[in-house]
Amino acid sequence: MSHESFLAFLIAARDDRSLLARYDGRNLAQIVFHARNEGYDFTPEDVALVVGALEANVILTKDKSIYDGTAPLWRRMWGRKHLDYVVKEVVQRHTHEELCDIIGSIVHE
Fold first, then answer.
1. pLDDT tens-digit profile of 44-87?
2. Which residue from 25, 23, 27 is spatially nearest to 12, judged by alpha carbons?
3. What is the value of pTM for the model shown?
4. What is the Cα–Cα distance from 61 to 12, expressed in whole angstroms?
5. What residues have CB less than 8 Å from 98, skipping those under 6 apart?
6. Phi and psi of 18, rounded to 5°?
């Protein structure tokens, strides 16, 4: 599934700083296109669903905050490139098992 492929991409970017650096300056269309050339297969819609689910988990479960404009996670996004923020502020806050569980819940919706 493409959700799993995007998760694999995020984990690879978390674990390989050169991969993150290569992709961080690219826009969403470029990320999707170039990642496909490296064996990943996901769409912009997959990116939105996965990132949204991971952000919600950080806000609601990890930060124990309200999911609104005042959530502390949003302040950590300001002034950063989006992929850098997602990898360092969202993905890194989850264990591998948590990431897989969240993706599994998206697939079963």
1. 999 999 999 999 999 999 999 988 888 999 888 887 889 999 99
2. 23
3. 0.90
4. 24
5. 57
6. -70, -35
Alpha helix stretches (DSSP H) within the chain:
2-15, 17-24, 28-37, 44-57, 72-77, 82-85, 96-107
Query: CA 45, CA 85: separation in Å to the nearest integer?
Result: 18
Residue 81 identity:
K
Residues 6+ apart with CB under 8 A from 32: 42, 43, 44, 47
- Cα separation, 76 vs 8, in Å, equals 23
- Angle formed at CA 37 by CA 98 and CA 51, multiple of 5 degrees: 30
